[in-house]
Amino acid sequence: GAVVSQHPSRVICKSGTSVKIECRSLDFQATTMFWYRQFPKQSLMLMATSNEGSKATYEQGVEKDKFLINHASLTLSTLTVTSAHPEDSSFYICSARSDGKNIQYFGAGTRLSVL
Amino acid sequence: DAKTTQPPSMDCAEGRAANLPCNHSTISGNEYVYWYRQIHSQGPQYIIHGLKNNETNEMASLIITEDRKSSTLILPHATLRDTAVYYCIVRDPGTASKLTFGTGTRLQVTL
Fold first, then answer.
1. How many CB atoms are located within 10 Å of the residue A34 CB?
2. Considering only alpha carbons, which residue of chain B is nearest residue A104?
3. What pLDDT score does A53 carry?
4. Which of A12, A8, A5, A6 has its CA nearest to residue A112?
5. Of B14, B29, B16, B46, which Cα lies nearest the Cα of B93?
6. pLDDT score, position A1
7. Three-state DSSP class for residue A56
8. β-pair type (A104-106, A110-114)
9. Residues B38, B28 contacting (CB under 8 angstroms)
10. How many Cβ atoms sit within 10 Å of the Cβ of residue A43?
11. Residues B11, B72: contact at Cβ < 8 Å?
């Protein structure tokens, strides 16, 4: 299957700092990528839809100024958690929709811990 | 997208077939059935999807009833590595394409 690389896999940061997470589709082009968040023992919640070359679409309740998304190429989307606080600690997962198929492939996730 | 209903948990003995059911009684004509699984602390893994015909790949088989109101994911010979949460998702690929995850079925494969 198609490969989506997400980096870093784990990050620990101090409160007030910003953290950038990268999501790359390695062997396919992805006009559309998605960012999810998952809290312990809960299901994945979609945060935003990222389209190459345009502004991301955020789900209700997700602050666009806090979770900055950039999708500058057909293989790379980034999520920046700005001024992170302990309540932002979570498992962040990206996915990329293969332009040639109607399948979303997921990265391995990034576990963010804000101290 | 139509809502799905899955049992919260199931057990299966290693080497036996695991049959995971999913109800999607409000599915519409353009909506496909997708299955993903999530092994602990990893991102979801795509398994299979289908519209109305039964589908099979190297991972699993998908059986969709004739009225399309339910489906079953079959892992023919479950192993301990198949222990995961399995999500059944109904989606129209012609729409905004986002996947909405429910609570899924936690499959525990035992010796």
1. 26
2. B46
3. 85
4. A12
5. B29
6. 66
7. coil
8. unpaired
9. no
10. 15
11. no
- pLDDT single digits (tens) B22-36: 999 999 888 999 999
Asked if A50 contacts A56 with a C-beta cutoff of 8 angstroms, the reply is yes
Looking at the complex, report in whole angstroms how far the Cα of residue A36 sits from the nearest Cα belonging to chain B: 10
Q: Tell me the residue type at B12.
A: C
* B contact test, residue of A21, A102, A105, A110 with most B CBs within 10 A: A102
Task: Determine whether the interchain pair A108/B42 forms a contact, defined as Cβ–Cβ distance below 8 Å.
Answer: yes
Instruction: Quote the CA–CA distance of B12 and A53 in Å, as a whole number.
Output: 46
The answer to whether the CB of B64 falls within 8 A of the CB of B33 is: yes
Tell me the backbone φ, ψ of residue B81, rounded to 5 degrees: -75, -10
Strands B70-75 and A104-106: unpaired
pLDDT of residue B24: 95
According to the model, what pLDDT value does residue B74 have? 98
What is the spatial distance between Cα A79 and Cα B106, in angstroms, rounded to a whole number? 29
Sign of CA dihedral A61, B97, B73, B36: negative
The mean of the pLDDT values for chain B is: 93
H or E element at residue B9 = strand B9-13
Whole-angstrom distance, CA of residue B6 vs CA of residue B72: 10
At A51-102, the pLDDT tens digits run: 888 889 999 999 999 999 999 899 999 999 999 999 999 999 999 998 777 8
CA B106, B31, B3, A91 dihedral sign is: positive
Q: How many helices (H) and strands (E) does chain B have?
A: 0, 9
> Could B44 and A43 be called an inter-chain contact, meaning their C-beta atoms sit closer than 8 Å?
no
